[in-house]
Amino acid sequence: MVLYVYASNEIHAVSDCYKQLIQYLGNKKESVVVIPSVYDINEFCDEYKQKIQEIFTCHRKIGYRYELIKLVFKLFKVCKTEKINKIFFFCTSNYVIYFKLLISIFKLDAFIYIHDPKVHSGERLKIKLIRRILDAFIVKKAKGLIVSYEEGRNIVMKKYNKFSKVIWLPEMKNMEFEEIRKANVPCEYDCIFFGRIEIYKGIDTLLESVKYIKEQYNYDLKLAIVGKGPESEDIKRLINENRGQIKFFNSYVEDYELAKLIKTSKLVVLPYRDATGTQTIQTANYYNKPVIASSVGAFKEYIVNYVNGIVIDNISAKNLGDNVYELLNNDKKYKGMVGSIDAYFKEHFSVITFAKEIEKFISKE
Predict the structure, then answer these.
(1) H/E/C letters for each residue in 226-259?
(2) Deepest of 96, 177, 273, 340, by most Cβ within 10 A of its Cβ?
(3) Residue 215 is inside which H or E element, if any?
(4) H or E stretch at 18
């Protein structure tokens, strides 16, 4: 019997991915699942051996920790009555450390999906310290580790001297709206960037490329930037200095509205300085949009040049601008990529395959 766990008091891409995973498990009768409190338990079927709803009402750190401890004690009884022998954690967030006693008492084989095999550049010292604690007490003692890209596996093998399985991250069902995908609408933007506004995502390079395209090709690139984050004020300043045709959606955008913005853009551009796993490519490709990205993390593995996008080595404002301008102005090349994306998406980004591969890995170990 496997216990699937993810704890969160807010909705984001990782929690949505976990939600998809447990919804698409094939062997639900042999699965006990923890459902984050941010989701309605009625969204999940009754086929599981047992569903455990988190009760997280506090957003303050002390209250959240107290409620997390209560959840762990609730799971003590579940592990005993359901004869749990394996536990799967989705993502190495700080909540995992609270389960150390549970793992030890019931001698559970722990399996962990590691979203970030390495800490992002510019990450806070606190996050780095938490990762070290998790590494020492949980990750290094796990039975099996799962990562989403080959370079990540190499990092994990070197760091923990432990075998890990590569399973590509799947599509994001919550971002898929068939009526938008099939709609025949004109493009309002040449390019779009969407995601949390953080320094490692290279938005400054993207803005410099807009200026480069204007100077080199006398073309005013229409760009949409969608997201919030700690670097928002710096990005606003750079946009004001740029004076290009740039629209910054710096507030919460509902999934449906974001999908419409992606649909009305010709390209998705992701000029990250470093990256780990990703689901932005999957979302872009669902709407048949090619992705131009830097050759880092999962990007260089999930993108096949001139099939579903372009990866750029040693990205700069110049080579990003050249690639963007060329693709926008080479109709044959652009249409060829758009025509090949759908088959690539179905082959590589199925959430059914994702869930099946995780179950298979856990059952074999």
Answers:
(1) ECCCCCHHHHHHHHHHHCCEEEEECCCCCHHHHH
(2) 96
(3) helix 203-217
(4) helix 13-23
Is 93's pLDDT higher than 80? no
* Residues with Cβ within 8 Å of residue 194, at least 6 apart in sequence: 225, 226, 227, 258, 261, 262, 268, 280
**DSSP state letters, 73-108:** HHHHHHHHHTT--EEEEES--GGGGGGHHHHHHHTP
Query: pTM higher than 0.85, yes or no?
Result: yes
Q: Which residues contact 287 (CB under 8 A, 6 or more apart)?
A: 180, 181, 259, 262, 263
Least confident of 122-126, 204-208, 283-287: 122-126
Q: Which amino acid is at 323?
A: N
Contact 51, 44 (CB under 8 A): yes
SS3 269: strand
SS (H, E, C) 304-365: CECCCEEEECCCCHHHHHHHHHHHHHCHHHHHHHHHHHHHHHHHHCCHHHHHHHHHHHHHHC
Distance CA(206)–CA(308), nearest Å, equals: 20
Of 92, 82, 87, 83, which Cα lies nearest the Cα of 103? 87
